[in-house]
Structures are given as C-alpha cells and as structure tokens.
C-alpha cells in the first residue's frame, strides 16, 4: 500500500522519519529540515503511516508488520534506494523495529525516539488515554473552535487539542469531521501495544539506538539496561517528555548527528 508522503533534502542517504500514534508526517518536518541543514548527505522521507493523516485506512487485523510493509513499499516507490535508516517516534519507532524484522536487508539502522521494544502497559500508554477522549468526542463539529472546546472540556490541554485538530477536514455541509477512523485506530492500538519487539535487537547484524525523555515513562531503567546489554546505546534528555523532538529539539539534533 502506497502512503501519503513528502521529502526533505537532496542527499542520497535515505532516511525515513515516522511519527507517533495519531500524528502525521508533518509532525517531524521541523526535525527533518534542521537535520537536513546540518547533514546535506541525507534525503528524508516523511509519511502519514497507514490509518493516519491522508493515507489509506488500516485494514482489518493490521499489525505493526502490516504498517511496516506499507512504509517500506512507499519508500521504494518514492525512489529511496539501498538500506534505509528508520527514525521513529513512539509508534513510529515500533513500526521501525517491525520493519527491521520483516525485511532486514532493507533497514540499515533503527533510531528510537522515546519508545521501547517491550510491550506497552495500558497504564503507561499516554496515547491510549488521549484516544479514549477522542473516541468520546463527537464525529464532527460546526468548526474547529467548537471541537477544540469539546476536547479541552474533556481534559486535554490546549496544545494537545490543537495537535489533534490537525486531523480535522472540511465536510461538504460546511462542518468539520475527523479524517481518521477512530474505532479502527483504537482496535489497532490495543492489539499492537502488546507486541514484543526485542527480537529486532537480538537478530544478527541489528543496529539500533535510542533516546528517551527524562520526564517520560515509556523507556524504563530496566529497558535501558537491557538495550545497552544488547549493544543498543541509550541516551536521556533530562528536560524532555515523550515528545523529545518538541521538548528538546537542539539537544536531540546534536545526538542524532553524532554517529554512533
């Protein structure tokens, strides 16, 4: 399945940036632009993963491997050649690991942005809490302001509500409606959070690195120790939360551009 995508940079080193749950490729545009200015050798592909943004919806029973296959197919259709470097935030990181297991020859390296190969416990899933509020919201509204009020009234912060509103699209009757299928995303989220992806770090030739937010809880100290024991370097940005690319963009860029 070919996904919606765009490119940044004119180099030949193929690098795919994958957003988190409920996001789109646009979420990582600033990172791609800044990274491209520092490293002219790279060509970045940013896409809306399956079920997100303007890409096709998730098929029934979709897994991380399903989405990973769509990512790889899209990268090749976009003209990226040779082994790919996959950089994924949250869900995007887990899809990157799944891609390295599905097609090891196509993946040169995986970079995880605040996510673990371990199954994600329900109580630690911030995206799960956001999803429940999103599912409780109406399917549409007269305008974005009305939907924003709806979301903040249910407990979401203003910035988080504004981020979600990027997924609204105009309807023929002049209202706005959600672009994605909230129920299929909820079903997918519940299933893939339980996947164990440690095999992506133990397979022969695996090359993985990780950076975590010091104020986040997705990558535990136990995960850190296990990853490092398997040859996966892990760094911590002490002032960042889960959205490391938003909270500490300059520190993240320095870490990304330091070859490891």
UniProtKB/TrEMBL annotation:
A Gene Ontology molecular function term of the record: hydrolase activity
Q: Boundaries of each AB hydrolase-1 domain copy? A: 16-253
> Which species is this UniProt entry from?
Archangium gephyra
What is this protein called in UniProt?
A: Alpha/beta hydrolase fold protein
Q: What is stated as this protein's family in its record?
A: Belongs to the peptidase S33 family.
Which of UniProt's keywords are assigned here?
Answer: Hydrolase
* InterPro entries per UniProt: AB_hydrolase_1, AB_hydrolase_fold, Serine_prot/Carboxylest_S33
